[in-house]
Amino acid sequence: MNDNTYKIDQNSSGEASSSGGADRSGLEPQEKPSCAPCFNNTEDPNVGCDEDEPVQSFLELVYGVLFEPVKTLKKAARRPPLANALLLVTILGLAGVLMWLLTISRVLNQAAEPSAMVPLPSTAPLLVLGAVLIFLWGYIKWFSYSAFISLAAEMLGGLGSARNVAAVVGLSLIPTILMIPAQMLNYYLASAAFICTTILVVWIWVAALMVIGVREVHRLSTGRALLAVLSPVLVLAVFTGLLLAGLVAVAVSIFSGMNLPGYF
Q1: Helices 222-256 and 192-218: angle between axes, nearest 10 degrees
Q2: Residue 228: which of 150, 144, 143 has the closest Cα?
Q3: What is the mean pLDDT of residues 231-258?
Q4: In angstroms, how far is the first alpha carbon of the chain from the final one?
Q5: Which residues contact 88 (CB under 8 A, 6 or more apart)?
Q6: Helix-helix angle 222-256:124-155, to 10 degrees
Q7: Is residue 153 within 8 Å of residue 38, measured between CB atoms?
Q8: What ranges does the record give for the region Disordered, renumbered to this chain (predicted)?
Q9: What integer pLDDT is reported at residue 206 of this predicted model?
Q10: Closest listed residue to residue 65, CA positions, set 177, 225, 228, 198
Q11: Is the dihedral of CA 77, 78, 81, 82 positive or negative?
Q12: Contact 165, 217 (CB under 8 A)
C-alpha cells in the first residue's frame, strides 16, 4: 500500500514538473529592449539607433539637399554618405576645371589675333598645370575646411566627428552646381552684377546648409553651428588684420627715423 502511494506521488510530481517544463518552454520570447535615443549616447550621438535605415542614393541626396535640406542633412548626420560626398566634390571639381579652361581660353582668344580660335601652343602646358592644381585644390579645401569646422564645433561643445562633418560639408556644396549655367549665361550677358549676385546667393545658400549639417552632426544650437561654420573666415580676417597692423607699424617705425626730402 505504501509502495503504491509512493508511486502515485512520484507520478504526480513528475507530471507537475513536466507540465512546468512545458509552461516554461511555451513562454513567448521577450522583446528586446529598444535602444536609447541617439542623443543619449555621449560617445557618438549619431550612431546606434538607426543602423537599419537605408542609405540615401546619390540622386536622393541631390534632390533632398536642394528641396528638403533639413530632413536630408539629419539623415546624413546619422549615417554620413562619405562616398557620395567624395563623388560630388569630384564632379564639382571637374566642372570647375572645365569652366576655368573655357574662361581662360576665351580671354586668350580675345588677347590673340582675331583669326586665332584656340590658345597659343606655348600656353597649353600652363593650362594643364592650372587645371590639375585647381582640381586638387578642391579636395584640399574640402578636407581642411571640414577639419577646421569640426575642431571649432568640438571646442564649442559638439559631440560629432570630423568624418560626419566632411560628409555634410560635401553635400552642402550641391548648390554650387548652379554656378555652371550662370557662368555660361554670363558669356552672353557679360554682366559683372549678374555673376556677382549669383555667387553671393549661392554661397549664402551653401553656408546655410553647412550650418544645418554641423548643427545636426554636433548637436549644437544654430548660433554655435553658425559660429563654427564662420570660424575659418573669422580666423582669416583676424590674421589679415594683425598682419596689416604689423606692416603698418613696421612702415611707420622705418619712415619715422628717416630724413625724407621736404622734412627737416
Answers
A1: 120
A2: 150
A3: 86
A4: 141
A5: 58, 61, 62, 170, 171, 173, 174
A6: 120
A7: no
A8: 1-39
A9: 96
A10: 177
A11: positive
A12: yes
- What whole-number distance in Å separates Cα of residue 190 and Cα of residue 183? 9
Average pLDDT over residues 222-228: 96
Position 223 pLDDT exceeds 90: yes
User: Burial, 217: exposed, middle or buried (Cβ in 10 Å; 0-12, 13-18, 19+)?
Assistant: buried
- Read off the pLDDT of residues 51-60 as tens digits, 9 standing for 90 and up: 556 778 899 9
Burial of 65 (0-12, 13-18, 19+ CB in 10 A): buried
Backbone CA torsion sign across 257, 258, 259, 264: negative
| Low-confidence winner among 108-122, 180-194, 244-258 (lowest mean pLDDT) | 108-122
pLDDT in tens, 67-105: 999 999 999 998 889 999 999 999 999 998 888 888 887
What's at 93, amino acid-wise? G
**225's grid cell:** 553651428
Q: Contact at 8 Å (CB) between 206 and 173?
A: yes
Amino acid at 154: E
For 147-168, letters b (16+ CB in 10 Å) and e give: ebbbebbbebebbbbbebbbbb
Take residue 261 and report the three cell numbers written for it: 626730402
